[in-house]
Amino acid sequence: MASQIIASASEKVKTMTGERTQKVADLTQDTKDVHDKSHRITTDYGVKQNDTDDWLKVVNEDKTGPMLLEDPFAREKIHRFDHERIPERVVHARGAGAHGKFTLFESAADVTSAGVLTDTSRETPIFVRFSTVLGSRGSADTVRDVRGFAVKFYTQEGNWDIVGNNIPVFFIQDAMKFPDVIHAGKPEPHNEIPQAQTAHNNFWDFQFMHPEATHMFFWAMSDRGIPRSYRMMQGFGVNTFTLTNDKGERHFVKFIYTPELGVHSFVWDEALKIVGQDPDFHRKDLWTAIESGAYPKWKFGIQVIPESKEHDFDFDILDATKVWPEELVPIRYIGQLELNRNVDEYFTQTEQVAFCTSHIVPGIGFSDDPLLQGRNFSYFDTQLSRLGVNWQELPINKPVCPVMNFNRDGAMRHTITKGTVNYWPNRFQAVPPASKEEGAYIDYPEKIAGIKARMRSKKFKEHKNQAELFYNSLSAPEKSHVLNALGFELDHCDDPIVYERMTTRIAEIDPQLAQDVAEMVGGKMPEQSTRQRHNKTAKGLSQLDYAPAEPTIATRMVAIIIADGYDPVAYNGIKGALTAAGALPFTISPRRNKIFAAGEDRNTGTGVVADHHLEGMRSTLFDSVFIPGGAQSIETLRKSGRAVHWVREAFGHLKAIGATSEAVQFVRDACDLPGMEFSTSGEVVDSYGVVTAAQVKPESFKEAIKMVKGAKHFI
Ligand code: HDD
User: Fold this and answer.
1) For residue 165, how far is its CA from the centre of ligand 1 (angstroms)?
2) Residues in domain Catalase core (predicted)?
3) Is 379 marked as a binding-site residue?
C-alpha cells in the first residue's frame, strides 16, 4: 500500500494532479521545479557548482588532509541546513493541508453582504489544514485528540480564515485559560511524558478542576476523538461570529462543514495500533484520495440567530462550550468545500500557512464570545514568533486581491513599494482609505456601556446540561466507546485523587456511566446525585446522523488475501466489483511476488503480483477484508498465524469481512461467535458483518458489496 500511496519522487511530480485555482496559479510565480532538466546546481547566490559532496581540503599524497574554512560552498550548505527549522506551532503542530475551492449554491444576502457568501457565480480558492492538537510535529496521526480544521478563503475582498475543529465546542470559555488547558494536555513538565495523549494525570486533573470542560471532554472521549479520515469528519468554526447584511442588520452565526462521505471513526484498539503501524495514516489517506481524483467534499452550513433573539436561549449563545441544537437553530447548507490539489512542497505551504481568527472580510464580524476575542489577539502574535513580521507576504499566505498600505520594513520584507511617502494622510493623497462603496470594511456601530470587571454571565456558569444532551443523544455502541475511552484514559492516571474523583463529575451527567467507569478504574461514586438530569436528546450529535443517504464504499481500502491456488473467479469478481464501486482493492499474499491461481501453470501463467505480503501490512490499515476460496490457497492461509490474525483482528474491529467457498470455513474458524450464521450453499449470508457465500455466483459479488456498504464500519 505504502508503495502505491507515495510514488517515487519523480513519478509523484509527474503525476501530480488537481485543479488550478486562482491561488494555485498565483503560487506558480514562486515555484521552481527540480525536474526541469535545464537546472544546474548553484549556491544560494547563483554561482554554478561542480561538487557539492566534498569540502575543500589541503590534501597530501593519500588525498586526505584538513578541511579549509575558506570553502564558501560548504559553509553555505551547512549554515542553511543548521537553520532549516522554525518553531513548530505551540498547538496543532502536526498537520496536513491541501488546496481546493469553495462554491456557493445559495446566496445568504438576507443575512450578510460578504461577497464570498452572496455571489453564487464565484469560485473562491481555499487552503485547508487539518491537524491534531497536542502532539508535536513528528507525532502520530491517529491518537485520541481533537482535530483542527482550519480553512483559508482567498476571497476577492481579502483572506478570510475560519480556524475550526472537528468538535463543535471547546474546553474553556475564556481565552485567558488557554495556556492552562494546553499545558495540562501537553506532556508533563518534569519528564516530557506522554506525547500526544490526554491519558495522564495533568489532563484529567484539569478536567476535574474545570467543570466548564465537561461537555468537551465527553466529545473528545467519543468516536469524534478518533476519526477514520480527515475526509470523514465534520468541521466547526466553534466560536460565534456575526454577519451583517446590506441593510446594516446583524445576526449571530456559527459555521459548520459536513462531509459528503459521512462521519466515521476508528475503534480505539485500531487507532492505537495504527499509531505504531502507520503514523502518517491520515495524511496519506488525504493525499491518496486527492491524487486519485476522489476529491473530498463538505457541505458548508450556517446557523443564524438574529441579534434580537440573542437572549432567547437557556444557554448563552456566546459561550463556546455550547452547541446551538439544530432543533432550535437549523443548519442552512449554502455551499460546498472541495479539496482538489495536493501541495507541491510541504514546508512552504502546509507548514508556513498561517491562520488568524481575526481575518474577516466585509459582511462578517466578531461577537463578544470571550474565547474568540482572545484568539483574535493570539494568532497574529504566534505568527510573529513562528514566521516573522512579514508572514503575510509568504506565497501561501498572500491574498489574491491587491494589498497596499504603509506597513513597512521588518525582517525579510519582500515587496518593493515605490513612492516618496510612507504615511497617511500625505500631500499626494497617495493611497487613500476606501469608502463603503469601494468595499471598505465598516465596523458595526454597536452601542456598549458597562463596568470593567473580570466576570462571567450567569448562563456561562451552567456546564452540565449540554454534556448530558450530547451523551443521551449517542447510540448504544457510541456510548460504550465513551465508557471504554474514559476507562482507558483514567487507567493511565496513577494519582488516585485524579482517577477517583473524576467519576463524581461523570455521575452528574450519567450515573450508570460513572458507575461503570468507577468499576473499571477504581473511581469514587458520590453518595447521592448532585444534579437533576433532563433526559433530553438532540439530533446532529451522534455521528450516525450523518450517514450518507446512499451508503458508499468509495475510496475505502479492501484487502483481498490470496495464496497460490486461489479461486480466480472469486478473486477477479470481487476485485472488479470493488473497483466499480469506487473502492480500492489491494492484493495481500504470503509473498510480494507472483501468486498463481488454481490450475494456472507457474511457467506459462501470468500470475498476480501482490501489493503487499501478510507480514508487511496489518488488517488495521484496511477497511475490509475479503478472502476468495481455492483449496490450496486456504490450506496455506490456515497454516499462517498471521493470516488467521488478519481475519480475527478485522472482525474484532467490526470490519466487513467477505469469504467464498473454501474460505467460508476458514473465516468461520477465525471469528466464530455463538449464534453467528455462515453460508452453506449458494445463498449470501451476512452475519455480524461477515458476508459469506459457499458457492461463487456472479450476483453474489453485487450482493456482497451491498452488504459491505451496510456493514457497521461504513455507516
Ligand atoms: Fe487555536 C492554532 C483551533 C482556541 C491559540 N487553533 C490552531 C489551529 C486550529 C485551532 C485548527 C491550527 C491552525 C493551523 O492549521 O495552522 N483554537 C482552535 C479552536 C479553538 C481554539 C477551534 C476554540 C474555539 N487557540 C484557541 C485559543 C487560543 C488559541 C483560546 C489562545 C488564546 N491556536 C492558538 C495559537 C495557534 C493555534 C497558539 C498555534 C499555531 C497557530 O495558532 O497558528 O495561536
Assistant:
1) 9
2) 42-432
3) yes
